[in-house]
Amino acid sequence: MENLDIVVLRTLQAWRQSGQRALLTTVVRTWGSSPRPVGSIMALCETGAVVGSVSGGCIEDDLIAQYSKVNVITDSPPQLLKYGISADEAHRFGLPCGGTLELLLEFNPDAQALGELIRALEQGRLMQRCTDLHTGAVTLAQSDAPLALQIDEHQLVNSFGPEYRMLLIGAGQMTEYLATMALFNGFAVTVCDPREEYRGAWSVAGVSVKSDMPDDLVKAFKPDRRSCVIALTHDPKLDDLALLEALETQAFYIGAIGSRRNNQLRQLRMIEHFAQTPESLARLRGPIGIYIGSKTPAEIAVSIMAEVLAVKNGVSLPRDMNVAHAKNAQAGLEVDPSAPVCFTGR
């Protein structure tokens, strides 16, 4: 499954290219709890077709009722619209208690400008889309870092980034579970395994499967701040060099499967044979996942995906969810409560 923003933009562009009227809706402000965060987008065609979401469904239904009528979507300036101002309205639209959100509606966005934005995102560029609130005119600019949505009386500026990417080393059963979850979380997934016996049994559609040596593929993959690299083979010949290459990049998550002992041995190998230091290996997570008592490959994949999403979303996990900390405590090993926790151990 592709990144939802790109799906919305592509669908909207197709509607506009075919001559259909359509609108782009963006969540620009929220008060209290809200079903979708600021910056979320949805597109609505005059036929009533919808892609994306701005709520749990009730607001989408109201927008469809208002705008999927003949000649209602006109070439008008952008319009701000609030939902959930009163308790009755919040209940009617399925908003959480006290929740209010404000939307910006852009009518009949230009297909050419949408195409330029989509091509930039497909090329891996981070873009800012600026909408003039008086005229609806759109300008695009490349950005070095994602910024929070900004809106004032003159313009809306919303950041659109390329897809998050996941590179998985090894094509075993656990990789299939993890790849499946990554796909429905909007990651573009690449699997690398030079072993034909593993690649030949691969069964997950929508994944790019490569036969290169993993360290070579990491170089070609060029991980950035929206990328993660995860080694799942348990084979140092495949995992170690790939992980070392990944540590030279800006990947937001780098890790490897294995026991606490295997993790210690991996770090010792890298220090002894590859001139690494504890400081240079600080970003290496391994073994990976959060502590949920997982035993099966599917359960371990769930724990890994949960940790990846937590790191992606900037969430600090409680100490008790660190696998090494939890297992050491269960084994009665002494745990220093003041020691920093890196969520790396299984």
What's the arrangement of secondary structure elements?
Layout: H1 4-17, E1 22-31, E2 41-45, E3 50-52, H2 58-67, E4 79-83, H3 87-92, E5 100-107, H4 111-122, E6 127-132, E7 138-142, E8 150-151, E9 155-160, E10 164-169, H5 173-184, E11 187-192, H6 196-199, E12 208-210, H7 214-221, E13 227-231, H8 236-247, E14 253-256, H9 260-273, E15 284-285, H10 297-312, H11 323-330
Produce a short descriptive summary.
The chain has helices spanning 4-17, 58-67, 87-92, 111-122, 173-184, 196-199, 214-221, 236-247, 260-273, 297-312, 323-330, and strands spanning 22-31, 41-45, 50-52, 79-83, 100-107, 127-132, 138-142, 150-151, 155-160, 164-169, 187-192, 208-210, 227-231, 253-256, 284-285. It is of the alpha/beta class. A hairpin with a 3-residue loop joins strand 8 and strand 9.
